[in-house]
Amino acid sequence: MPVTTIDPRPALVVVDLQKGILGFPTAHPSDEILARAADLAKAFRGKGHPVVLVNVAGVAPGRTDVGPRSRGQFPPGFTDIAEELAPHEDDLRITKHRWGAFHGTGLDSRLRDLGVTQVVVCGIATSMGVESTARAAHEHGYHVLLAADAMSDKDLDAHEHCVGKIFPRLGEVADSAQIVAMVNGEGRD
C-alpha cells in the first residue's frame, strides 16, 4: 500500500479522536491509533499543512434512539480533543452532528479557501466517521489518502472491510509512517 504522491497542499483530517470516543473498546488499541495520528499531525504542522481536528457533539435530527447520547447529551469532557494530538491554535476545529465531517460544517469551504486538494483521513470509527468523511471528501473532488494504521473500529470485520474493500475505491490507503515520510519529502523521486 505505497503512497504515490502528496499534493502540494494537503490537509490532515483527524476524526473523533476525542476523550469520550477513545474510552470505547476498539479492535485495535486506541492509544496506538492516537499516537500515529499525533505523528501525522506533527508532520503536517511541521510543513505548514492544515490539521483539522474533528469532534462529534450530537446526532442527526430525526433519530428515534433512546438515551442521552442520542439526544446529544454527553458527559463533561466527552467531546474534548485528546491532548496527545497537541492541538495548536492554527488547527481547524470542526464540530459535527453527523457521522461525516463535511455535512453541515463548512469544512469544504474552509479547505478550499486554504487551497487544499488532498485530504489524509484517520480516526475512529473506521466504518462510521472515517468512512463517511472519506466518501464526502471523494465526492467533493479531493484526492483522498487513508492512514489505515491510524484508525480503528469497535468491529474488526467492519474495519477490515472498509480498509480492504471501500477505501481503495475512494483513494489511496497507506500506513502512517509512509505518509509521514512523504509529507517530509522522503521517498520522492
Automatic annotation (TrEMBL):
Transmembrane segments: none annotated. Pfam families: Isochorismatase. GO terms for molecular function: hydrolase activity. Residues 11-178 form the Isochorismatase-like domain. Keywords: Hydrolase. It comes from the Bacteria. This is Isochorismatase family protein. It comes from Actinacidiphila oryziradicis.
